[in-house]
Predict the 3D structure of the following.
Amino acid sequence: MTVLSTAPLPSIIRIAAALLIGTDNRTLLVRKRGTQAFMQPGGKIEAHERPVDALTRELEEELGLVIEPAQASYLGHFSAPAVNEPGFEVQAELFLVHIACDVTPAAEIEEVVWIDPATDGDLVLAPLTRDLILPFYRSSLTPSA
C-alpha cells in the first residue's frame, strides 16, 4: 500500500546568487528594502535565461556591478527555506565572483555590507546564507588534513 503525504509541497523560487569576494577576502551581503535578513546578491531566473545570465543581469540592476559571465565560477545548487516568503523554498544556482571595485545599492537593495566569511558579521542572515553558503565557503578555505 502506498501512502501519499498530505503535506503541501513548498513553492519554489529559482534564483542565481553570487558569493562575491573582494580584494580583502571579505564577502558582500545585501538586504532588500523592508526586510531584516542579509543574503547573497542575485535574483530570480527568468524562464528564458541561463542562471549565469540572470546573475549578471541582477548584479548590474541591484549593485551597478557589470561582469562578464566568464567571471562567474559555478559552485553548485543550494536550497533552503525562503526568508521573506513563508512557505516558499529558494533554490539557488551559486556562483563565485571576485571583484575589485565598489558597489552601490540600487533597485530593491537597501543596504550592502562586507563581512569576514568566517563570521556572521553579527547580522540577521537568510537561511540559505547562514546554513549553507557561508559554511560551504568556509569549508573550502580550510586546508585538508
Remarks:
- Residues 127-141 form the longest helix (15 residues).
- The radius of gyration is 16 Å.
- DSSP finds two helices and seven strands in the chain.
- Helices lie at 51-63, 127-141.
